[in-house]
Amino acid sequence: MIMKIAVVAADGRVAKKVIAEALSRGHEVVAFGRHAENDTPAKEYIQKDLFDLTREDLAGFDAVVDAAGAWSPETFPIIPNAAKHLAGILAGTPVRLVVVGGAGSLFVNSEHTLTVAETPDFPDAFKGVAAAHQQALDFLRTAKDTQWTYINPAGDFQAEGERTGKYILAGEEFTLNSRNESIISYADYAIALVDEIEKGSHSQQRISVVRA
């Protein structure tokens, strides 16, 4: 079944992989980005800031991918604010919101009281972005009228990693593969994300993926 997918913050590297993967399966993709030029694989590109998007802009889509990212203290708030804005304008509609997450919020114990970002060895350099992703997830858990899914990548999220076509679908806990690795490429993450859009089996849930 051909689906209509909107990718928001489409100029980022994860977004471009998601667009390419969705297009390879024959889906209709509309990319929304801030740049004047379309440097995404999408044939249809709309220049519009994420925070200017309206309910009408996203009506008629089967799914909206929130690929908003930030890498500086000044921009970290973009991550939770993007989730809030998109969840708000999609509330009460059947349009699914699929959010690109970060590994720091995964739990490392069965009681779900300690996250990766809270462990002693978690690098200080990533604490800010991890906190921003945590805030986004915390908000989504309260968004009862939005059909959201939050997808955590593995700890080692590789922009240039190979597309193996294989991944392990996990849940709330930090998961290692059979080689004791927490790793996934952007390309394999995109496969998992588009699979989730097609299957729609984890509404209002957080899931995670790691290379098989």
TrEMBL record:
PANTHER family: FLAVIN REDUCTASE (NADPH) (PTHR43355). This is NAD(P)H-binding protein. Residues 10-195 form the NAD(P)-binding domain. It comes from Selenomonas bovis. SUPFAM superfamilies: NAD(P)-binding Rossmann-fold domains. One of its GO terms (molecular function) is oxidoreductase activity, acting on the CH-NH group of donors, NAD or NADP as acceptor. Transmembrane segments: none annotated.
